[in-house]
Amino acid sequence: KHAFRESTDGTGVSHVTFEGTLSHKDTVFQVSGEGNGPIDAFFKALRSVGITDYEFVSYSEHAVSTGADSKAVSYIELSRGDETIFGVGLDHNISLSSIKGILCAINRFERRAGAENMRTE
């Protein structure tokens, strides 16, 4: 579950709030954060529950077909320390496409770290 709320202050600056539910294994997290756009708000929401190891590097997105109802695909690049990894998100909602891409990249980091731990044990 998620919700974005956007407002503009008197000087024309955009403020976006993300509120949502994330689940990991058997734990459910209620997260919220505010930023200057959906990605910034989502990252601040992650930080509110202690997910702080990831830095946003870059992204790009485009439509996968013609028409206003096309799905968007987002390519996200994150770093953690000296490692970089990419994630991809796909959704009709451009903002949600980016969020899915971020979660994809984080999940890939975690799977890779888990596989490396299994090799060293």
The secondary-structure class comes to: alpha+beta
Helix content: 25-40%
Number of strands: 6
- Uncertain runs are none
Distance, first to last CA: 37 Å
- Sketch the major β-sheet: 3 strands, antiparallel
* Biggest β-sheet: strands ordered side by side in the sheet: 1-2-3
Order of helices and strands: EEEHEEEH
Helix count, DSSP H or I runs of 4 or more residues: 2
Please state the overall shape, judged from the principal axes of the Cα atoms.
globular
Strand content is: 35-45%
Radius of gyration from the CA trace? Answer: 16 Å
Mean pLDDT: 91
Topology:
Blueprint: E1 2-8, E2 14-24, E3 27-35, H1 38-48, E4 55-63, E5 72-80, E6 83-91, H2 94-120
Antiparallel strand pairs: 1-2, 2-3, 4-5, 5-6
Features:
2 helices, alpha+beta, three-stranded antiparallel sheet
Outline of this structure?
By secondary structure, the chain is of the alpha+beta class.
What does this molecule look like?
There is one protein chain. By secondary structure, this protein is an alpha+beta fold. The chain is built from two helices and six strands; from the N terminus they run E-E-E-H-E-E-E-H. A three-stranded antiparallel β-sheet has the order 1-2-3. Strands 4-5-6 form a three-stranded antiparallel β-sheet. Strand 5 (72-80) and strand 6 form a beta hairpin. The longest helix is centred in the C-terminal third of the chain and has 27 residues, at 94-120. It is globular and about 50 Å long. The protein starts with a strand and ends with a helix. The mean pLDDT is 91.
